[in-house]
Amino acid sequence: MIYADNAATTKIDQEVLDSMLNYLKGDYGNSSSPHLFGRKAKEALLKARETIAKIINCAPNEIFFTSGGSESITQAILSAASWGENHNKKHIISSSIEHPAVLNTLLSLEENGFKIDLVKPNNRGIVDYKKIESLINNDTALVSIMYANNEIGTIQPIQEIGCICRKKGVLFHSDCVQAISHLDIDVNRDNLDMISFSAHKFHGPKGIGILYCKKTFALTPLIYGGAQERGKRGGTENIASIVAMAKALEIQSNNLIENELKIKRIRDFLENKLLTIEDSHINGDRQSRLSSIINIRFDKVEAETLLLLLDKKNIYVSTGSACSSGSIEPSHVLMNLDLSKEEANCSIRISLSKYNSDEEVATIFSEIKEIVNYIRSFN
Ligand code: PLP
What we know:
alpha/beta; globular; three-stranded antiparallel sheet; 14% strand; Aspartate Aminotransferase, domain 1; Aspartate Aminotransferase, domain 2; binds pyridoxal-5'-phosphate; single chain; 12 helices
């Protein structure tokens, strides 16, 4: 089996899994309990919060544990909207290539009277920060721009957007779900007021994530309950997953440069090989891009068919966002690059991780080449 769908989810690291087990089997206390068992859980929670805060350069009490990227994103955007409503600011700026977690939250706000501007990127999938600047006005409550795109991997000019938002006094949130696995994110350097991310994208468990929120802004809870997460997210903390997420992020951060060099090397090898196949094209910018993603189209080769035949050979890739698979609509990200519907439907996403090897990418290439030729022989 060759797994090359790491933008959808990743394999958990053994060390991360080991770190979880003690808090499921041994020290399974509730961190709100006053006894020793509870205090052990609380200690683990504090330690995990400190580890994560250090990595993204914020204070531990600016970290909120959630169930994952979608929840963090929803809470960030709805909190900004609620603040905006109270300050007569009902305008939000985002981009047209965001993940559905952002787009659908914005849609719900639009239905409730917010004005939403979605900036279209250029045809390489990069958002122009000057366009964002020109849209900011006195009604603007929030700018939410993803750090890196999940389908084509393009990295947005986050530092520039952060500077503009800071200068104009507008809240800035970034969906960092894909970026956190491959980039060094520093919320201070990047002028980020809120960021969202999820452990399962960096070899941690599913169902656990982070919302970073600067201390000068008060989040609105999505889940009411006890005093957990300083009253901003009720519910007994998932200590095992929180500990595991901190461990996964620590491993990712400590090995960032080495892993990135490896992933980029095998990605470039594979991409250059794939481009030797006739009528193949890369979707999205090839410079400002995550090291891990190749979004490529082969003219006249339907991605769904290619995917199915690769699946039969136990090679797992994807046709864009996993959340929209099963739908026959072309990817909204690819359509925003001004591709035709047909071009979008001929595009596949290969996303690599530190666990992929030279041999695997060589096999991916030879199998894709064979299948593309096979499909084209029927055209
Ligand atoms: N944002 C981006 C860019 C993503 O890629 C994903 C997941 O694929 C999400 C948000 C949602 O994250 P989660 O699956 O943790 O809810």
